[in-house]
Amino acid sequence: MIAESDKTLISAAIRQAETFTAGEIFCVIARHSSDYRLVPLAWAASLALLAPLPSIYLTSASVEVVYLVQLTIFLVTALLLSHPKLRFHIVPRRVRHASAHAEAMRQFFAQGLNRTEHRTGVLIFASEGERYAEIVADAGINKKVPQDVWDNAVDALVTAIKAGRPADGFLAAIERCGAVLAAHFPPGALNRDELPDKLLEI
Description:
Layout: H1 4-18, E1 24-30, H2 38-50, H3 52-58, H4 63-81, H5 84-90, H6 93-110, E2 121-127, E3 132-137, H7 139-142, H8 151-162, H9 166-184, E4 199-201
């Protein structure tokens, strides 16, 4: 999703931002947060259940024919909607965003952002398939910085991903997050680097 040369730029941007803050920034981009494989089956089953009604009330088709029509509709619908481009379009936006948020939270804990010394870890997360981005900040930051402060960084990230420039989105988000962290969490005397300065693709 992101070229190695762009990953190098992102790592450098994280290091640069962290020189001015005690905060720790980590970036994750997911191709998608779920495969939603049950969604096509649910649509196919719904259509297949409705399919016999016209045949029963408007024709004299036999039970066998009605069953074959029902089975054919289920199989064709399930196959068509299983195509990735169609599958993501039939998933409700609320469901996609809930799935992406859940993955963001999993990554926050999996990457150890909750284990920094002063609870100043920040995850910049994007899920390309869901067109979703989120910034998850640890408890130490949430005490001083409300969630809506990150909206500017999230908007920059989402806009760039929609335009096919995810690397530019991460660079913009890192810069904005770095500025917020520098204002509230200046670097300490040691300013240890507790987390890898990189973008992880999953």
